[in-house]
Amino acid sequence: MSPEALIDIFREALSVIVMLVSAIILPGLGVGLIVAVFQAATSINEQTLSFLPRLLMTLFALMFLGHWLVQTMMDFFLEMVNRIPQVIG
């Protein structure tokens, strides 16, 4: 196995990880930003106020994107299993 092939596999794995994590994190980040602007505008300094909306948005993102997340992980896993002969020989 050449080092270029290993680097290519590692690059693909990192891109899949970044894509899956960003699909979960970005909606919560957007809601957190909106709540932070609301808190700054109203001078409410309650730390727990931003926690619940971010948590709910993350759970909704997992609920609605769960099928796509699992399908993406399975596609990547099957691609890696299919590459085993190329990696070994």
TrEMBL record:
UniProt superkingdom = Bacteria
> Where is this chain's protein located in or outside the cell?
Cell membrane; Bacterial flagellum basal body
Q: Name one GO biological process term.
A: bacterial-type flagellum assembly
InterPro entries registered for this protein in UniProt: Bac_export_3 (IPR002191), FliQ (IPR006305)
Question: What are the annotated GO cellular component locations?
Answer: bacterial-type flagellum basal body; plasma membrane
TM region positions: 12-39, 51-70
Segments forming a coiled coil = none
Q: Which UniProt keywords apply?
A: Bacterial flagellum, Cell membrane, Cell projection, Cilium, Flagellum, Membrane, Transmembrane, Transmembrane helix
Q: What membrane topology term does the record carry? A: Multi-pass membrane protein
- What family is it from? Belongs to the FliQ/MopD/SpaQ family.
Q: What PANTHER family does this protein map onto?
A: FLAGELLAR BIOSYNTHETIC PROTEIN FLIQ
Q: What does this protein do?
A: Role in flagellar biosynthesis.
Protein name according to UniProt: Flagellar biosynthetic protein FliQ
